[in-house]
Amino acid sequence: MTAKNGDTVKVHYTGKLDDGQIFDSSDGGDPLEFTLGAGSIIEGFDAAVQGMSVGESKEVRIPAVEAYGERVDEMVIGVSREQLPKGMEPEIGQMLELVTEEGERAQLVITAFDETSVTLDGNHPLAGYDLTFAIKLVEIA
Known about the structure:
This protein is mostly beta strands. The chain is built from 1 helix and 9 strands; from the N terminus they run βββαββββββ. Strand 7 and strand 8 form a beta hairpin. It starts with 7 loop residues before the first strand and ends with a strand.
């Protein structure tokens, strides 16, 4: 039996950047559970698990466009410190949640600040990176 769209699967994985840095892993924890084809994980990872058998392992390189997308310069904005929540002291790496005029939520990270302004980046932290995953399929439900 091989994994196909609609199957709920459990996988162990380790994700690395091109420089070998591990950015995420299920090692030592519970396997990741998701439904193939449901759009709940990045496209390239979903595609890599398609057709795998229980117990099978593989390593795949997923281009940025099939992972978290390319970096978009327009998603980096500067705002006045006065626009931050009252009493907030900005820190590099601090996450903020913004609600757009359309009511959608956006996660932004502070990448720089000075006395008067703050730079916010709405790109996913892994946007623009090709990712390599070691994947082991442990269960098909």
